[in-house]
Amino acid sequence: MKHALEVFRTDLRHARNSVMASVVLFGLVVIPLLFTWFNVLATWDPFDNTSQLKVAVASEDTGYDSDILPLPINVGEQVLSQLRANEQLDWVVTNSEDALDGARSGAYYAAIILPESFSTDMLTFYTHGSHSTDIALYTNEKKNALSPKITGAGAEGVSSQIAESFTETLGEVTLGVVANLNSFVDSGDTQAALDRVEQRAASAQEQMRSSARTARALSDLVASTVPLLDSAQNILNRPTPEIPPASGGVDVPTEALDAALARTVESYGTVRERVAALQRTADSTRQTQAGALNLLADQVESTTAGFRGMRDSVNAALSPINPAQAAIITGQLDQVIAAQDAVQARLRAAVPEGGIGKQELDSLDKARDSIAGLRQSELRATVQELQDSLSGLRGTLSGLDTPTELNTDGLRRTQATTANLAQTLDEHAQTLGELRREIISARDTGDLSGLAKLAGADPDALASALAAPVGVERQAVYPVTSFGAGMAPLYTTLALWVGALLCSVFLRTDAPVGSPRPIAAYFGRFGIFALLGAAQSTLVSLGLLFFVQIEPAHPVLLVVASWVASAVFMFLIYALVAALANAGKALAVLLLVIQISSSSGAYPLHLLPEWFQNISPWLPATYAIRAFRAAIAGTYHGDFWLSLLALLAFVIPTLLLGTVLRKPLEAYTTKLNSALESTKLM
């Protein structure tokens, strides 16, 4: 220890006695400070200046005229009007030719063009065959790497603003016209417009009611298959020869009904096998056969009850919609029920007779063939037609489009969904009925107060609420003052690493001439490195606090993290250079390059390639950045101290390299230095 202190005092004396050495040491202390300050201030809030990015926007929209109300509507003009007042980007309203040329030349960072059919596409979204409208975005990716991302985000904002503007404009036009139409009620155009609106409302109401009837019929039909599937499943679940399992997924409700019928056919095959087995078993007692026959008869009776329920549901639900098909299907179901009644009667008649003959087997075959014929009948096509008739409501019935397990729970959920849909459609039909009555009243009496009540006293407020019914309130869990403050951990870590690297370039790491002990010389030389590191880290952290004013959650912890990170970086780079000479300096530069990307200082680690994710835990900068983040934004369950502990763990291999491995590597470093000197260049 005494010899190490002597080496340290000698280095300090040389620095104090040399003006050049003092200037160099001053520069080594100041450079990390300037690196951190300038970078943090430069990125303090760059997204606050996006209003300087010029983005051209042009509209070729020709507008839209509705046949309901003779009011020309141009959503494109509404969008341009709103963008003129938008200060997020520097929107330049121009024509499409200038917008494209400016995007290519670099005069604009991007160009957005609204198509000719913009208003038409947006205002006819409800018609058959309509499609969503698209806006064209042209970005100049050559001009800057980040600007396409910013302008792309701006274009998404425009898209969102267009959607909001569209809803609000539509609401203002329709609701505002209704609320203020009293002054024009006597005109012929107004009467004609009210007639058209009333006709549209009547048509929409009838479509809603028809869809509700269809959904309710579908719900009743699905409900009727539940007991049928239960009874068929009960037969199949009895101890029998192995039955192949049903398919893993079926579509609801058409395939579910078809699968239920298939299960019933399969169950009759199982019943026939059991009856035939009883017939072949000569040593079966009369009592055993009677019990088995009664059990099979009960199971057939349960299946018959399921078909009766299906017949009643089809008759009640389908008759109002399609009486002809309802009669055909109920007739086919009656044939199946009759065949099953015959099976049940033959099985029960065989009990007192004490024997099972050909008649019982024939009746089973007949019942099975009847049900198999029912699968090929119009029942499946009719159910498919009911399901297809709801295709326009696919958003509401999206739960029915996914594969569903063939079980009663899935069918019950399907039945509940379609029943709820029918109720919702009825409610909408009732609302349209109220609107229709108010329109008729307004047309006949000239009093639009009823329509005004439906629209509300303030159409603008209602339109705004319709345009943006949900808002997002941002709550920062660990708030920072600015984007630059969030980037401060990365820049501070890089500054301290660069400061340590510069010290290894300008300061000597070899043992002084005449030093008695290499270990003492090693730690003595490190003294000047540690002193410079402490000065660098102190000035950097205090500058962030008082000059840059990042306002950390824990200012003291920020200073502590700077001291620890600087000491570890200094010790690591000092050991590399002391043991490997110039190769150690090159290795330190390589580590700097790797740590810029792999320490998750700028981008979330999971966004980086897998190789960077794998190497990140083995880099000291990773834990230094975590410690700085905890000090700036706030700690959580001791994460600050855990990060410092992980950072200090790098001291152990560094100590081994500088003290134990340095001697074996000395011959290599000597050869390397001689080779470099022989080049007369390095």
Task: Draw up the topology in text.
Blueprint: H1 2-17, H2 19-42, E1 54-59, E2 64-65, E3 72-73, H3 75-84, E4 90-93, H4 96-105, E5 110-114, H5 118-123, E6 136-139, H6 147-179, H7 188-237, H8 254-280, H9 286-318, H10 323-353, H11 358-375, H12 378-388, H13 408-445, H14 449-455, H15 459-467, H16 483-506, H17 518-548, H18 555-580, H19 582-598, H20 610-615, H21 620-633, H22 639-648, H23 651-660, H24 666-678
Parallel strand pairs: 1-4, 1-5
Antiparallel strand pairs: 2-3, 5-6
Helix pairs in contact: 1-2, 1-17, 2-16, 2-17, 3-6, 6-14, 6-15, 7-8, 7-9, 7-13, 8-9, 8-11, 8-12, 9-10, 10-11, 13-14, 16-17, 16-18, 16-19, 16-21, 17-18, 18-19, 18-21, 18-22, 18-23, 21-22
Run of helices and strands: HHEEEHEHEHEHHHHHHHHHHHHHHHHHHH
What number is the mean pLDDT? 73
- Gyration radius, rounded: 42 Å
Q: How many β-strands, per DSSP?
A: 6
Give start-end ranges of low-pLDDT stretches.
173-186, 238-253, 389-406, 465-470
Shape: elongated
**Beta-strand level of the residues, as a percent range?**
under 5%
Number of domains: 3
- How many helix segments? 24
Between the first and last Cα atoms, what is the distance in angstroms?
A: 35 Å
Sheet bearing the most strands, described? 4 strands, mixed
Percent range of helical residues: 55-70%
- Order of strands in the sheet with the most strands? 4-1-5-6
> What structural class results from the helix and strand content?
mainly alpha
